[in-house]
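Lecture 7 notes: from sequence to structure.

We start with a single chain of 467 residues. Read the sequence below before looking at the structure.
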Amino acid sequence: MLQPFTSAIAANRFGLGARPGDLAHIGNDPVGWLRVQLKGAPPALAAEGLRSSADIIAQSLVVRREIRQARQEAKNGDAAALEAVIKLPKLFRPLYIAEVTARFRQAAATDRPFLERVTQFWTNHFAVSVDKVAVLGVAGSLEREAIRPRVLGNFTGLLLAVEQHPAMLLYLDNHISVGPHSRAAAIVGRRNAKRPVGINENLAREIMELHTLGVGSGYTQADVTTFAEVITGWSIGGEAGRFSSGAPGQFVFRSELHEPGAKVVLGKRYPDNGIEQGEAVLRDIAARPATAHFIATKLCRHFIADDPAPAAVAHVANAFTSSSGDLPTVYQALLTAPGAWAQPLSKYKTPSDYIVSTFRGLELPVGDGRGALGAFEVLGQRTYSPGSPAGWPDRSDDWSGASALMKRIEWADAVGQRVGGRREAAGLAPELLGGNLSANTSTAISRAASAPQALTLLLAAPEFMRR
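Now the structure, written as tokens:
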């Protein structure tokens, strides 16, 4: 039987940090509290400034044409025309801030933190990074349009939606991948023999390596190359040129870019039936045992331990396979996996987790503009900016260095100085940490010289920094 301290594990390990009153609400049924969050449609983000990816990309295509014209004019001596080059960052930055603020508010205030945590897990699993300017305006829309609506669906549906989302196509350059024997390649070759056209393998490689099968699962470089040929033509509508088609900014299959012919991927032959060829490969990859094991390993590492027990991984992988990738079934398997309720809290919070749990625990409002988002940059985890398709690392050692710890303590001190007079840390500590609150931390808080110092000690406590 679960012990009372597990209410704090439910709120912190599987949620985003307890708020005052949460542990009492969870009571002696932490598993039931988590399971009920998986019922009902996922909440949609709705806030001022949020726009569809199609609308954003359509506008950016217009701006890009202006930039190309401005550069040409600059070559002809009109230096002032270069001002147009900064239009894209100016267009994208407010969109990025709106997306990140809406996401932060949702995490800080949601009554379904388990659902929000799995949403953020998938966003990091299918990572894009705003370091690439073309993605700056649409990284948030990938989460909002492709991931959030499907976190309680099936993995295959989630996979298809993500790989066909414009943000992923832009980030991994699949929209410019051209089959060497396609109609487009033949036309370009006749017109300009020096202009290279060909396959871009980025998306195919990351699907196999990072999104499904994982490294060492048996696929070969030949499988990557062939799969890249299969998904040529997966593109974005509205781009300029002879081969433009489809609604601006939306996913489109461009048959003229597609490498023709049947293809063999992972030992199976797929006929050339257009977009269905690539979708069939994705469905089959999603159903392979290697994918179940890879996804289960990442989920167990995220929720349970840096090095989860093989029995825990097998338990979750079996749920994935037996349910054909039904995600609520997989999440519920996490709750009954070996080690899921082990004490004490062991995972070191990422900077994002730490910030969100602070805002939840202190019931702080999330303001507008860059001011509310600065902490993520200061602590080293700027939202939607992992820097690579691998996403942010998910092991404690990646976040627990001395310099990073000092930044957290400095930030905790700043929070304590700002709101410590309005929060009584001694009473708040058991509300947020429950049975995981140590005697040492309780004593330190009770002996603090001031209310701000007491709050800083709570936020800097080892128990608060772990989940």
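The mean pLDDT is 92. Keep this in mind for problem set 3.
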